[in-house]
Design a protein that fits this description.
Blueprint: H1 32-46, E1 53-57, H2 63-69, E2 74-79, H3 82-91, E3 97-101, E4 111-116, H4 126-136, E5 137-148, H5 150-153, H6 172-180, E6 185-193, H7 195-205, H8 208-214, H9 218-228, E7 234-237, E8 246-252
Parallel strand pairs: 1-2, 1-4, 2-3, 4-5
Antiparallel strand pairs: 5-8, 6-7, 6-8
Length: about 250
């Protein structure tokens, strides 16, 4: 039987969420790599939405909406999943933060910034979603949209990874063109490994993957290494996007 992973150490009265593979979660040590990979992007965006009205679409567990609310004038986390919505509104309570249970394409509220991370690959009509976001934005508004890089997610030559929730996965230029079809100006950034994740990446190229198996160190090593990963072990920058883990499009109306 496959093991179920639940969030650890939740506050009293807050139901822990199970790890399903469709959304990432904090407070699950085995999931920490993916959680930090998402968190660093939320933190980067938060530094750029100070004083703005922000809507975080498909917010999942709610941690990202909470990060945004730490800088924004107001933040709304939107998610259709009833368990995630209940958890988020009980777990994250700020005067300027609220959570709404709704579909991404159904929620419409005027705002200055829309955040839509690691979800556009799940939708059937990405263009319609981007047009919907644009219709919500005030003059000068911006949409932040991220997605994984097909070239580093799927096997070489494949048109898609084996993720059953993904409808379409993007290469850099395809993703840029999609966003430019709907917004006046688009800046595209890549997310890359940094610090100890970069060192680990280099170690794998030197044969660490085989060495830890031969030495019987695989589980002890990763039981310590994975929970120690921090947001600072990732970096957002322009350049060499084909090698990026994820893309972040900053889309200006």
């Amino acid at each position: 039987m496959e093991r179920e992973y639940l969030q650890l150490n939740q506050p009293d009265g807050v139901p822990p969420l199970p790890l399903t593979g469709e959304r990432t979660l904090p407070d699950v040590p085995e999931e920490n790599y993916w959680y930090r990979r998402h968190l660093v992007v939320y933190e980067w965006i938060a530094a750029r939405v100070a004083g703005l009205r922000v809507v975080d679409m498909a917010c999942g567990e709610g941690y990202g909406s909470n990060v945004l609310a730490g800088a924004a004038a107001s933040a709304v986390g939107v998610d259709a999943n009833p368990e995630a919505h209940k958890h988020a509104r009980l777990r994250y309570t700020r005067p300027n933060l609220r959570f709404e249970r709704d579909l991404v394409e159904g929620f419409a509220e005027p705002c200055d910034a829309v955040v839509f991370l690691q979800t556009i690959e799940h939708v059937q009509d990405a263009g319609a979603i981007l047009e919907h976001f644009k219709s919500m934005l005030a003059p000068g508004g911006v949409a932040f949209v991220s997605t994984p890089n097909l070239l580093t997610l799927a096997p070489p030559g494949a048109e898609k990874s084996d993720n059953p929730w993904h409808v379409h996965e993007y290469r850099a230029e395809e993703f840029r063109r999609l966003c430019e079809d709907h917004f006046a100006r688009v800046e595209l950034y890549g997310l890359f490994h940094a610090r100890k994740l970069r060192a680990h990446e280099l170690a794998l190229k030197l044969g660490w993957d085989g060495a830890h198996k031969r030495l019987g160190l695989t589980k002890p090593f990763y039981d310590r290494f994975t929970p120690a990963i921090a947001a600072s072990d990732f970096a957002l920058r322009k350049g060499n996007l084909d090698a990026a883990l994820d893309f972040l499009a900053v889309c200006h109306v």
